[in-house]
Every structure is written in C-alpha cells, then in structure tokens.
C-alpha cells in the first residue's frame, strides 16, 4: 500500500478506536461490523508501516507511534471539520454536531432540558452530550464545550464564567424527627453526615453566615457517595444531612421531602464555568450553543450571575 491508502475513513476509525479503547463499541457507534473496524485499522497500519494499536483480549491501547499519530490525526480531523463548518457558515447554514461535557447530576437535572430546547430551536444541529464528573481533556476527547463546577486550574481553553452555584444544608423530615434539628453549626458534630468521596476536605464542613462569619465544623458519617444523584437519594431516604446544590434538591425542598437545616447558614457557593475548545469558538453552531447555555443556566435554581460578569 502507499500514501493514497491513508484515507479519512480509516483515520476516523482509528481515532475512535484510540478514544474508546474497544473495537466493538466503535463498530456500534459507526454502525458497521467489527471486522470492518479491524480492517480499517489494519489497512492504515499497513499504509503507514507501523503498529498503531496494541491489542489484548480485553483492551486496545495505543503504541508509542500510535500516540504520536493520534495527536496529529485528531488535529487534522478537527481542522477539516472546522473548514467544512466555515464553508457552511458562509451560506448561513447552522448544521453539524456540537460535543458537550457536563458534570453528571447537573446534566441530568437541568442541562439536558436546555439541550432539548436548543435542538427544538435549531433542529439541524446534533448534540453529543457526555455526562461525567471527571475533568476531561477537551482536545483529546474531541469536546467543544464543557460545563464545570468548582475552581479551575490554569487552562489553555477559552473560559466563559457563568455564575455561582449556591448550596444549602438539607435533611429529610424523618431524619430530623429521629435525630433532632441542630440549632447551631457546632451541633452538627453529633449528626450523621452524607459525604462526597470525590470532594477534597469532606471530613469538615464550612458554613457562612451573613456578615462573612465562617464556621468550620467536623463532618462525619457512615455513608460516602461519589455522585450527586446518589447523595440526593440518600437525603430523601433519611440517611443523614449534608450540603447540596440548590439545583440538585429544589424540587424536594418545594414539596417537603427535604428541609433546609440551619437556614441562616450556608456552605460557600461554587463557581460554574464554561470551557470552550479555542479552535471551535469560530464555529457558528458552537457559538449558538454557548450563548444559549450561558443564558439558560442563569435560570437554573440556585445559579446566580458571577460578579465578574460573563
């Protein structure tokens, strides 16, 4: 084989295998047979004269040469997609796919509905919506937009500050009836806490009162979870009390299944930001979704506009 055998179809298949690490998953995604996926990768390797993937019975991983080729291939594919999008934009056509990553609980509870509304307004735009609490690499994972809660490390991504996510301390009426209602932050040490295992410092709880007074109290319990939706269920089941984003429990507070504890105190708000892959900011459909989400997220319960502006 020669360089003419290095086709876009084979490159695209290789890139998805590299990202998914599973031949059968890529076959389902591309709606082709697994043998076709294997053949595409093999023919690309033969054309290049190097092994790109290392295959075991359980996993497909990149070789050193494959890692280098992947880094260049993903850039080529994204540049090609951008060129196509810019050509479409010149005809005022907004079509194609936008890939968005979002923390799981926020995505399930609120962002999914915003995406549905966006697609109702722009039916030609497809959305690839990934829910994960991990900080994904936008470039490597081919993500256009990421919604992230919490402070951000230095990033080469374009940052759009959305707002602050307010939190509240909650418990079920049944829990409070059986264990009593704490009257001061110090009394929390005698209560059962539902803790987040993926949040640093969850063994203590910071509460703020109007005027800037802060209380740091021990926070312990027999249940730790790594997902906001699991914490939500634990609160309703009376497993303990704990801090929750208002958007996570607004409906439960409204219908009385949960109650605010120490309502004069609140855990510090958490920043909510949007990251955009720099080379995608000029794409019409990406810009449309960025603006739609930036506006829509401020209507989510407990999300308040950042003082720094948008």
- Using the CA coordinates, give the radius of gyration: 24 Å
Strand order of the largest sheet: 4-3-5-15-6-16
Helix content: 25-40%
Beta fraction: 15-25%
Account of the 3D structure:
The protein has 310 residues and is an alpha+beta fold. The chain is 40% helix and 24% strand. The chain has helices at residues 8-20, 23-30, 34-48, 64-90, 104-121, 138-141, 173-179, 228-236, 246-254, 284-296, and strands at 53-55, 60-62, 96-102, 125-131, 145-149, 158-165, 167-171, 194-196, 204-209, 213-218, 223-225, 242-245, 259-260, 265-266, 270-276, 303-305. A hairpin with a 3-residue loop joins strand 9 and strand 10 (213-218). The N and C termini lie far apart (53 Å).
Quick synopsis:
With 310 residues, this protein is an alpha+beta fold. Helix content is 40%, strand content 24%.
Describe this protein with a few key phrases.
three-stranded antiparallel sheet; six-stranded mixed sheet; alpha+beta; 10 helices; 24% strand; 310 residues
How is the topology of this model organized?
Layout: H1 8-20, H2 23-30, H3 34-48, E1 53-55, E2 60-62, H4 64-90, E3 96-102, H5 104-121, E4 125-131, H6 138-141, E5 145-149, E6 158-165, E7 167-171, H7 173-179, E8 194-196, E9 204-209, E10 213-218, E11 223-225, H8 228-236, E12 242-245, H9 246-254, E13 259-260, E14 265-266, E15 270-276, H10 284-296, E16 303-305
Parallel strand pairs: 3-4, 3-5, 8-11
Antiparallel strand pairs: 1-2, 5-15, 6-15, 6-16, 7-12, 7-13, 9-10, 9-14
């Amino acid at each position: 084989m020669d360089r003419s055998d290095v086709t876009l179809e084979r490159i695209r298949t290789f890139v998805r295998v590299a990202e998914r690490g599973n031949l059968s998953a890529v076959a389902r995604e591309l709606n082709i047979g697994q043998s076709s996926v294997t053949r595409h990768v093999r023919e690309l390797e033969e054309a290049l004269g190097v092994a790109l993937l290392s295959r075991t019975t359980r996993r497909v991983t990149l070789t050193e040469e494959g890692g280098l080729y992947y880094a260049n291939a993903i850039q080529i594919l994204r540049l090609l997609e951008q060129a196509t999008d810019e050509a479409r934009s010149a005809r005022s056509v907004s079509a194609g796919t936008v890939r968005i990553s979002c923390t799981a609980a926020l995505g399930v509870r609120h962002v999914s509905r915003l995406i549905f509304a966006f697609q109702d307004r722009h039916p030609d735009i497809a959305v690839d919506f990934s829910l994960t609490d991990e900080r994904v690499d936008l470039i490597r994972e081919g993500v256009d937009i990421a919604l992230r809660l919490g402070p951000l490390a230095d990033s080469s991504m374009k940052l759009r500050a959305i707002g602050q996510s307010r939190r509240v301390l909650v418990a079920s009426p049944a829990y409070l009836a059986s264990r009593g209602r704490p009257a001061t932050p110090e009394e929390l040490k005698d209560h059962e806490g539902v803790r987040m295992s993926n949040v640093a410092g969850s063994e203590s709880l910071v509460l703020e009162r109007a005027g800037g007074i802060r209380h740091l109290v021990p926070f312990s319990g027999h249940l730790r979870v790594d997902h906001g939706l699991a914490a939500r269920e634990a609160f309703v089941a009376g497993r303990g009390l704990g801090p929750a984003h208002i958007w996570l429990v607004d409906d439960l507070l409204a219908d009385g299944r949960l109650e605010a504890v120490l309502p004069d105190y609140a855990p510090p708000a958490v920043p909510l930001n949007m990251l955009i892959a720099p080379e995608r900011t000029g794409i019409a459909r990406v810009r449309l979704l960025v603006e739609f989400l930036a506006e829509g997220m401020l209507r989510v319960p407990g999300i308040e506009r950042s003082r720094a502006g948008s």
